[in-house]
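FW: tagging you since you asked about this chain on Friday. Here's the raw sequence from the shared folder, copied in full. Didn't touch anything.
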Amino acid sequence: MFLAIVGLFWHYKGPRFPVDFVTTLILNLCMPALLFHTLATSTVPMGSLGRMALATLVVHIVFTLAAVALLKLAGKDWRLCIAQVVGNTGNLGLPVCFLAFGDEGLAYAMAFFAVQCLLLFSLGEAVYAGSASVSRVLRSPVLHAIWLGVLVQVLDWQVPDMALQTLQLLGQIVIPLMLITLGISLAGMRAAQLPSTLLWALIRTLLAMTVGFGVATLMGLEGVARGVLIIETVVPVAVFHYLLSIKHGHDASEVSGLILVTHIAAIFYLPILLGVLL
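HL: got it, structure written out here
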């Protein structure tokens, strides 16, 4: 919370914060380093992480189908389903899961985040852009960090300490920088058509709760894995949707309102959810 407030004050009092540069730095360098280090050194069995990855895929399929149905029923653009489904599992989900469950929670959260990244920057961005690009996915550093980390873990390879320490340092940048960037991004957003935005924020949160608890029960997840899956499913709408909407020429005002309102609501519902899960 305090780190997000740092970003909020920076937006109004500090020099220009290069959001595009920071986002590129995190996604192309720091996040892959954190993913690789987490997977390569994790004490959580790969079978358990694989089960989390499968549960994450089920969450996104069920959530997307439900969101598309609701949007079409309301006569809205069905492509907004991507903003409804993909939550802020990086900026907010990773630190919250780390707070609640420690290193084990972070490992599960990274598995969720990795699957979501692959889905967002392949199928999700294809929906925004109106066309798919296999080469964009294959160029993703996140993808290569995942399979390399899994390979090292499965084959029990010994990575040199110097390399692991360097990757760990790069990965430690991610959480604080993402939280500060979150505060800066939210400070610049406005909620247009507030009654409609409030309604859709409520619908989205209730749907996320239903899907999260439902899939966790369906997949038989327990303990930390169950908690992480639910938290990562119900975190507010990802800030990155605002950038994707602008990039592909869509009206970003509705998306920015949804991002802002769900993040403000999360201040109240996330502590309650954590109390229930813990």
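FW: Residues 89-129 form the longest helix (41 residues).
HL: agreed, and The chain has a mean pLDDT of 85.
FW: great, closing this out.
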